[in-house]
Amino acid sequence: MRGWLKGLAPEDRREIGQDIATVEYGWPIGMPACRPLGHGLWEVRSSLPGNRIARVLFCIAHGQMVLLHGFLKKTHKIPDEDLVLARRRMKEIEQ
Fold first, then answer.
1. pLDDT digits (tens, 9 = 90+) for 4-36
2. Among 59, 93, 56, 94, CA closest to 78
3. Are 35 and 45 in contact (CB under 8 A)?
4. Do the Cβ atoms of 58 and 44 come closer than 8 Å?
């Protein structure tokens, strides 16, 4: 997750970071900043310059927001491999 963020342009990192902070400090929060994906998985929704969309998938573990996976959306639906990866990481944290 950290490597993905560091690989983004500074203005993209700033926007995503602000959206994560909005969700973290405003929790519980809903649309348009945050949306549940089911079974304890949530997404932070970020709109980036150039009509691009980023998502950061997270869960709440031990009262803390845990960032699991981030990606730039290229389609309307979240790709299955991104959901599988986030859910696997969430299970690892819960153990």
1. 999 999 999 999 999 999 999 999 999 999 999
2. 56
3. yes
4. yes
